[in-house]
Protein 1
Amino acid sequence: MILTIDRALKLIEKEIAALDFGKEPKELYDPIYYIMAIGGKRMRPLLALLSHNLFSDKTENITKPAAAIEVFHNYTLVHDDIMDNAPLRRGNATVHEKWSANVAILAGDVMQIKSTELMMTVDDKILRRTLELFNSTATEICEGQQYDMDFEKREKVTLEEYIEMIRMKTAVLLGFSLELGGLVAGTSEKNITLLREFGVSMGIGFQLMDDLLDVYGDMSKFGKTVGGDIIANKKTYLLITALQKAKGAEAKKLKELLGSKTIGPLDKVKEVTEIYNKLEIKTFTELKINEYFDLAFKKLNKLDAPLHKKAVLKDFANKLAQREN
Amino acid sequence: MILTIDRALKLIEKEIAALDFGKEPKELYDPIYYIMAIGGKRMRPLLALLSHNLFSDKTENITKPAAAIEVFHNYTLVHDDIMDNAPLRRGNATVHEKWSANVAILAGDVMQIKSTELMMTVDDKILRRTLELFNSTATEICEGQQYDMDFEKREKVTLEEYIEMIRMKTAVLLGFSLELGGLVAGTSEKNITLLREFGVSMGIGFQLMDDLLDVYGDMSKFGKTVGGDIIANKKTYLLITALQKAKGAEAKKLKELLGSKTIGPLDKVKEVTEIYNKLEIKTFTELKINEYFDLAFKKLNKLDAPLHKKAVLKDFANKLAQREN
């Protein structure tokens, strides 16, 4: 039976809506229900379900571990939002804004525990392996977040360092989501490796797309302020590439804009974007995004699974590659 | 073979000193080595080792799970210290003071993952049960911390609520430490339950002793500012009891002291302590502490283990009951 993306999303939303984290104390649990309810694309659990469906029809075995990933992902968002001092998440107040930083720290801590509990619904025979992979993925995500914060303070970041940072911070969890689906379904080691590699490549492409949309996205669709990365001097793929490619007057101008304490945010976004346009940064970034999605599709092609089922994952990846939000 | 407290402590310190959390990024891992190195009593891993030794001589099976508890405990301290805005921990700068709140949040997050990884060194046949107990204990600790913060904002807290809060925040982890020792050693269900109950009762007594030492401790031995709880209007066992017992002029005076915005901290400590003295709060608290330690010893007596080995745990509990720091 083919699990469609829509059907998989319904199963995920149902599982998430039924999650029982606890009730008292309210200040601990209310923020958890809140952050889990304000949505998001549910991309990670969806990938786990679609991956699982390549080899098995028993969706009941994967919905809870898949929900575990979503709880874990939301926990990292709750803590990252404190660290980034972010007021909004998915158009809603962040947990630390709505409650307090203390509430957000502790709610996140409980979510990490709950995600492990949900992950432990896997069968005994894959329990140790699943948790080992989950823990090593979680560690890489924390390391990625630390590198992200380190890079803000550093003068120079290379493209390689940047790609490695987003691999850790974002891509490995997509890789693990797919890997988990294969693991729960009991597929071969070769397939499990290919699934992870598919997810990691797609994840890097996905994050580069995020960087691109931050500058070139349609604000009404993207749901974030366009140019936020530029305003914050965030060393994204676009800025690092621009700093490498800019010569002479443009290099000088770009550095002035980055160092200016007086320029207004809208002017800064406009002028930096103009430099990006002159340097064709959009094209360079799109090429890099395509490169990672191509690599992802190669891994998917090699996967030993029914073509008509792989088509669903391919469709999903294509939508990510062409997303506008 | 009897494992003495000294020998157990040496094994624990050796295990902790050898822990490899990771190296890069430095800002993520340096704080973890720092907090783990500044010591503490290592009470929880010690309890796990002594409990394990009641039934088994194979210390190599318990040192890593015991270290897991210490890593977990230190993670909760790192996060709690942010929430409590505490500048010092064991006489040293707290992680958020020495680095930043962001560093402390993320270092704590990684420590939680590492504690699970270390806990997973238990044998396959007890893996699920161990992690289930660890997770439910961890959840209770977070709930206890939230109640603790809630109580600061509340007008009235009953003694029962207070005891339940410290049971969750402090005592269950002592209970789990002992339970873990029994579990790893493969003892009976009855013994495992008794070990947990022993630890929980002892843990409540231990925390009440902490409250008492905060007012009546010798500062040079206690290592914290005496009277810190009084200055912060912390609803400890002492204050809640005093609020219940004070009548007439004393009740009025106590409430004035708690509400005063002008009184200096030293005067406040002095005057509140005088009221405690008049109301014999020290005696009431000591009686309650003895009650919990007596209950703990009853559980220990019921435990089916060699008397000469139980004597080590009894000795340890006696030292806690009579501690001055």
Protein 2
Amino acid sequence: MSGPRHYCGVVGINAGHNVVADLQKALMIIQHRGQDSAGVSVFDGNVINTVKDAGLVQIALPKERIENIQGQVGIGHVRYATTGGKGAMNAQPMTMTTVFGMIALAHNGDLTNYQKLKTVYMGQGAVFQTDSDTELIINLLSRRMGQDQDPVKAIKAVMSEIDGAYALALMINGRLFGIRDPLGIRPLIIGKLDDGYMICSESSAVYSLGGEIVRDVMPGEVVEITQDSFKSYAPTTRCAYAHCFFEWVYFARPDSIIDGCEVYNVRKNIGRVLAREHPADVDLVMPIPDSGRAHAIGFSIESGIPYEEGFMKNRFADRTFIMPDQATREKAVSNKMIPIKSTVDGKRILIIDDSIVRGTTLKKLVHMLRDAGAKEVHVRVGSPPIIAPCFYGIDMKNREQFIANKHTVDEIREIIGADSLGYISIEGVIEAIGLSGSDLCLACVNAKYPTKIEGEEHRYQTRLTDLK
Amino acid sequence: MSGPRHYCGVVGINAGHNVVADLQKALMIIQHRGQDSAGVSVFDGNVINTVKDAGLVQIALPKERIENIQGQVGIGHVRYATTGGKGAMNAQPMTMTTVFGMIALAHNGDLTNYQKLKTVYMGQGAVFQTDSDTELIINLLSRRMGQDQDPVKAIKAVMSEIDGAYALALMINGRLFGIRDPLGIRPLIIGKLDDGYMICSESSAVYSLGGEIVRDVMPGEVVEITQDSFKSYAPTTRCAYAHCFFEWVYFARPDSIIDGCEVYNVRKNIGRVLAREHPADVDLVMPIPDSGRAHAIGFSIESGIPYEEGFMKNRFADRTFIMPDQATREKAVSNKMIPIKSTVDGKRILIIDDSIVRGTTLKKLVHMLRDAGAKEVHVRVGSPPIIAPCFYGIDMKNREQFIANKHTVDEIREIIGADSLGYISIEGVIEAIGLSGSDLCLACVNAKYPTKIEGEEHRYQTRLTDLK
Amino acid sequence: MSGPRHYCGVVGINAGHNVVADLQKALMIIQHRGQDSAGVSVFDGNVINTVKDAGLVQIALPKERIENIQGQVGIGHVRYATTGGKGAMNAQPMTMTTVFGMIALAHNGDLTNYQKLKTVYMGQGAVFQTDSDTELIINLLSRRMGQDQDPVKAIKAVMSEIDGAYALALMINGRLFGIRDPLGIRPLIIGKLDDGYMICSESSAVYSLGGEIVRDVMPGEVVEITQDSFKSYAPTTRCAYAHCFFEWVYFARPDSIIDGCEVYNVRKNIGRVLAREHPADVDLVMPIPDSGRAHAIGFSIESGIPYEEGFMKNRFADRTFIMPDQATREKAVSNKMIPIKSTVDGKRILIIDDSIVRGTTLKKLVHMLRDAGAKEVHVRVGSPPIIAPCFYGIDMKNREQFIANKHTVDEIREIIGADSLGYISIEGVIEAIGLSGSDLCLACVNAKYPTKIEGEEHRYQTRLTDLK
Amino acid sequence: MSGPRHYCGVVGINAGHNVVADLQKALMIIQHRGQDSAGVSVFDGNVINTVKDAGLVQIALPKERIENIQGQVGIGHVRYATTGGKGAMNAQPMTMTTVFGMIALAHNGDLTNYQKLKTVYMGQGAVFQTDSDTELIINLLSRRMGQDQDPVKAIKAVMSEIDGAYALALMINGRLFGIRDPLGIRPLIIGKLDDGYMICSESSAVYSLGGEIVRDVMPGEVVEITQDSFKSYAPTTRCAYAHCFFEWVYFARPDSIIDGCEVYNVRKNIGRVLAREHPADVDLVMPIPDSGRAHAIGFSIESGIPYEEGFMKNRFADRTFIMPDQATREKAVSNKMIPIKSTVDGKRILIIDDSIVRGTTLKKLVHMLRDAGAKEVHVRVGSPPIIAPCFYGIDMKNREQFIANKHTVDEIREIIGADSLGYISIEGVIEAIGLSGSDLCLACVNAKYPTKIEGEEHRYQTRLTDLK
């Protein structure tokens, strides 16, 4: 609810039929990963054609434009605009014409050495039309392919240059590749369709197309997706995973399975862990719709405290989500969430939110519950205190914005006006996910970055891509 | 979810400040009662000014137009377009200039003798620009006021002419009235604000403006709303209530209290009753989001069967709600609801829907659950089988559309593909609401109409408005 | 150019084919008479269906909406919004349902006793949804038809009640009537098509549909237009014409023939007369595009002074025409008209404008010519000084706006910065038109109104409609 | 009227104030050179900011976006979309970030060796996001600047690589350059403003900003525009001019002065020449509005035959101009032009069109005149028969489309239905312009190309840029 925003989602399909409608459907399924622009690129046997524009999938990819393109291989992208603007100009996939043909790229993530590489490369005569690291990746790729005609070799070479988080759907003419960064920070999964194969940021899109999950793309792996199969070009050695733990806590759809762990289950587990770590003597546990329901069910099951729907969410105010600035978003909260008086009045209530960035939304909700007659309001939070910026594709780059950086838990409790406040521990959230803590990126809650970040403590002193 | 659609919602405010923003906010709260057009009319001390247009409140009442009008007395309306079109032309409030000044009217309901009265009145020279019974009511009112200058007498006289369901917010120049039909079929409630009073279709709008509920407008009552108080012109005698039971089952917001019964509680009770009337040996009970959650929680509490969220709803597909035709709506279901595989797979599942009109949506959902691995799918329905049309303001006028009219419960079960199917009984739903069955309109489930309807069985042989 | 704005244009067609496209085409031809809204109503054999909206014909009547209606009888309307707004709500034709069926009306003109009649009629119980005299006419008509079933008698009765200027296209179910006020102030002409007949404000629309002009509707005449012919219900006596002289000077299209006189010819004659009344020793005569060309050609022919195009008009700035307020319009002039330096530089120039209301635009043009090097700038005006308001359908109701009311010709010359200024005389413009002066309405230039206007001098002391 | 379409227009300003509004105004003045997209780029002292979008200047550069950028140096562009689409993506100026800072480029023309250069350069690793030669020029420029930091040297180096027609407004960070191809095919002029200097495709824009013409940019010249002056980097030697003669005949505004010759005067001269080359015994000479007026005035003066406006042009149908395809445009003609019957009826008429590409529009006009009663219709054409494609920036690349390629003049006369048809001779049009024929590009009428074109006869066997 009050959590951070995400950057992007990608999809790529190679099948025995025109895949445009499938790409569109998949993008609607991962629409939560970006609402500012959407686009698809398909290879028609000759060239790559692209339709992309600002807005939700339904707006950006209207029937009359989508009908004009077709192809059995294609990629798609939904984008959350950070700086720069939401315009059509920044929509992806980005396409380029090279001596080897056309390249289309859809990118989810953030390169940490983007500025450095860009400067170096510009010094060699390269020019850039955008501020997007996607454009840099295509430039690097094109240069590498000039040195070695083999796309896979070129991709590997580019991967040895770039740092950070990236999940890529890449098309070189009619060849489709899925690429995941060496630590697997951003998710990417392989699916099998009736007459083809696909890659996507989230597994739900695979199901929505009637397909089956094959497996996650491995960290550092390049997979070439064909109509009949897929071919893996894995890293020769590996020594580390760093899956973003926030995908499970907040970003991904509940029905997605990421690196083997289903999001809905993880969220229920978080509720269970919270019930053990921060029990409370309350009358009922309430979710903050829609993102907090699984957490609350888990807490209810573990604690035996009844689960109730105590907030009425106004679905017509849901446009809030696409309101650009924080101020507008917060102002919209009071129209969006209304307590159900009879559920709340005279009760001791516990609510669970997925995370706290600034705390402003939560403060409003607590006050609304009190106004509606709640005797006590207890807050539990499904992620540990956020204290450090994310450089891997999440829109929380500014340390100043984190309330947990400036205040103790008790101070935060007082600011938001709760009777008690409990964050899940780092150990707790690791347990809830069920993977090893060393396989997760927890940088935003423990300030230890999995890749080298100038001026920050990082887990690995060498560039990860060197670790072969 | 698969239930019928509603017509309209109304609001009226008289307060010590410019009420335009309050009207707008209240309309956003009752937006679920109509998404096709919205409008507000305010009296500026001299004339009534109106802003209205097609679309959601945010679209129809944009800042730049709303800023141009002001007044301390005003009414508002949201509308669900049935036949005729969604255009700006049909938006309410409807306003007219008469010899007594300006009249503005916002109407929720349906007059059952509209065509008859219109024909009679046209025979006397009246002309009509629309097919709306709202226009007829204003015409009748104007004529009555010509005979007797007193607005209340005129209103009463009109009420003795018209039959059917109506909840009206009426402004005659700067005087504001709330009017409810003699059986109280459609809801209307009085609220007290900091510096004024209001009427509205649903109590949640009162809370959203920081006010307190005073009481429901009584069946057949006219209330004049002033800044300091309200004055009641009650019917001298009364002998019947006929509150639409569907308001609790499906239409109204969970957080609204209608005729003393909170909607959320009624829905939980429905779940409890269903658990007793149609128990099931299943692993978990799942709501159909968003409307079915309270039902499912009630079933879970009564039965002890765990409550789980097993459907993921795509909020970006929520535009479905404003899709005009049935076909488009149904096609959109599969993008909108996706089962969470881990919750569903291998389980015996019970889902609760609020009602079944055609059954097509439910059929899709059952199949989706089976595809996701559900071992058994049991369906419970929060209203008795719908078998008769509604003539009181709900968009289900055609007997042919009701699956329960053509099939037995077991046939319906087979059609939708469920392992078991249980409708709540008429007695059960009466118990869940907590009012006397004779005080409810249950015509759509028992075919006994509270007012005289040509060709239908009706509870009262004389016109109800004669029952003084 | 700097002249007043017009109200409306009407059309009606009865033919052996679906007339929707013809109505649309005719409205495009008379689009200059109103750009704020457009609409068509057609009778499909059963009911009258209407499509109307704000905007130019192309915008208001889009293909997808127009395709949904059809009929062999129909009317259309283009409207210039004065007060009140340009919204879809005020678009015409206006339609009403009465006991006799459906009525649709398209109106060009202004009733001078509108407020009086409205008040009287409201006293009898009538209600009004708009501030439009069109609504009043339909109400009166409906009432009269209640007394006497014959439409023609009812129309005649209404004509005996209303005063002012009106040209009407009226449909009563499938019967089509053309009606012109008793003085013939606004134009209305009958045309013959291949398989039908039509009426229209301007003859050019008849030609554009491949038809032939039959004759003008006579003052006070009602014509019923059928597929095979038309039937005239003429006034039994008549004693006066008062055709608005401004239709020839400015409003109508050059290619239209109004009451026997072709507009283009009249305008050339005006130029000739001006050359005689106000000769000038100049190097060249220049039109102000586009409206002044015929005037300038006439002046050139009569005087022997060369005609040159010295203003370049920016067609992309032509949207000026649909800019609502005077200020915006004036500001736009300098982008819209640019002198051609080579034509103008060092020359003594004479320009002709059709009329002067405020004089602001003309002042700008004179200055622009001087800036471009003109040695002298002489101005001739194609209408006498405008000194009195129009109550017959032209948007110049406020005496204060007329520069000729506050200043002598020489003062005006100084204000606009011209070397000489000559208005055509009243006699001159009468000569140019070629009709008798007593058959023209010259009220705006001689302040003598053809109908009774409270507080104004009028030519006829009794109501004209009484003059039988 | 029936002539070819143009590509683009450019402007660049360096002045002592924020130039955004001036750029916008200048673009509106040259809007006729491209209506599909518009854009401006300004340097704010630090970076270059750009606003550009599809549509007319008024649409593409709305107030709210224009207000957000500012700078004292800037360039602008209007674009006519050929293939590829009209979308925002193809709007100019195009901007790039290089190691030397930001580059913005606005381009009017066509590179004849674009594909060849692009292929070569891609072979060296360059990638291209568009099919636009503008992108190629920036790439070349960036590479050259990497070799030699001096912008002027880099520009000169690029000019030695590229062939064809180009008039460029170029910004490298805050430095502004105007560049014209070595033959001066496309126009570009230098103007002096109150507090700055500018370059523009047409001189009218200079006047519209209150400035004075300084001189045309010379063929092959690079000028750097500063606030106080401009600095010329002329080619060391030159041997040829090849100004596109069509700029005078059809493209440019009448009030523009190109390479010393005013367009309006040239067009009058064309009329005079036609009167001598192809005299006719007719009653009147009529222009085809709006482009043909000057031609007709010239013909009238030379021949003594009266000039009349015989076509009424519907300004509301003027959107035709922005209709994309030929078919739609032709269909729109009949709504757009209507003969004035009284002028035409019974007369022998001569009309002058600027050029004939396909002849379809002209055929319609001739028929319309006959239908309106013209006894004879004679056609004169202001350019010689078009027989060869243009490779220098005009949208007539397909030889098949030219009627004069397939038919003799007499056949064309018969096809269009005229009584006589006369094209101006090549010598005649040269005389009318007043420059030497060897200084003009007449390739589309004599098939002799000024630069080397594969498979075509060309005047110069070596690359022109080698001729130093």
